[in-house]
Structures are given as structure tokens and as C-alpha cells.
Amino acid sequence: MTARDVAELLGVTKQTVHTWLRDGVIPGYKVGTTWFILTSELKETLRKGENAPRVRTSKKNEREG
Question: How far is 5 from 28, CA to CA, in rounded Å?
Fold first, then answer.
């Protein structure tokens, strides 16, 4: 599946899917400039509930710590 396919399937924008892929929220493989998502991996991730966003540290917090 492509990011566009996932976006249509989940009812979100393609940009949202790209953000999830970049942040590791959903699994995917980038070939050149195109992301590919294996249907079986996406289903398994959603089934397990592993689609929670990872904690991000802000630049401000990194400077303070």
C-alpha cells in the first residue's frame, strides 16, 4: 500500500500518514521518495494498539536538561 492508500483507508490526510511513518507510529519502508506500507504489518500494528505516538522531546527541553 502507499501512503495515499492508507490515508483513504483510515480517513486521514496523506500528510498525517507521512508524519506517522516518519515518527514510527506505523511501520513502513521508504524507497526513494515513496513510502510503502505492508498491509499485514499495518493490520498487526493497529491490532496490537502499538499505534500510539512516541514521546517526542522538544529542542527547548533538550537544552534545559
Answer: 13
Predicted model pTM: 0.72
Distance of alpha carbon 38 from alpha carbon 36, whole angstroms: 7
Instruction: List, for residues 16-42, the tens digit of each pLDDT value.
Output: 999 999 999 999 999 999 999 999 999
Spatial distance between the Cα atoms of 40 and 13, rounded to a whole number of angstroms: 21
d(CA 8, CA 49): 20
The 8 Å CB, 24+ separation contacts for 26-34 are 26/51, 28/3, 34/2
SS3 percent helix, strand, coil of the chain, rounded to 5, is 50, 10, 35
- SS3 state at 6: helix
